[in-house]
Design brief:
The protein is α/β, with parallel strands linked by helices and 156 residues long. Helices cover 32% and strands 22% of the residues. The chain has four helices and five strands.
Amino acid sequence: MPRFLIVAYGNPLRSDDGVAWRAAEALAAKYSEPDVEIVTVHQLGPEIADSISRAECVIFIDAATRAAAAGEVQIKEMTASAFSEPPGFCHALSPSHVLTLAAHLYRAQPRAFSVTVAGENFDHGESLSAPVRAALPELIARIDDLLAEAGLDDRR
């Protein structure tokens, strides 16, 4: 059972929206199961709640479309939301919604964080903008710090 779950989501074919996938690749080279599970998805769906139910700590990584400056890394600790159920007829859920599903379905309440990078370019393409590319090492370092703070001490 992985103690730590990293969920990287976004579209790697939409420029800066793929930053989470790039971070996941870098983190996969540093960490391995059984302690850390890294999942990459285009969007969050209800099936993520099952993976959350088996983790002590969850880190969601995504590109932000509304932030002060491109390349800015922000971290927010999260909890399950007060919503009784996710909104109907949607294809994607928010991190708080999948945390809520995990709490309702599995009685799981892991520590959870949202880590975002402010994007600049969300056009079609596989290249990151210069500010987001420059922020990638900071993003990885901040996630390393979160994992260490949450108790992961066996870095490779």
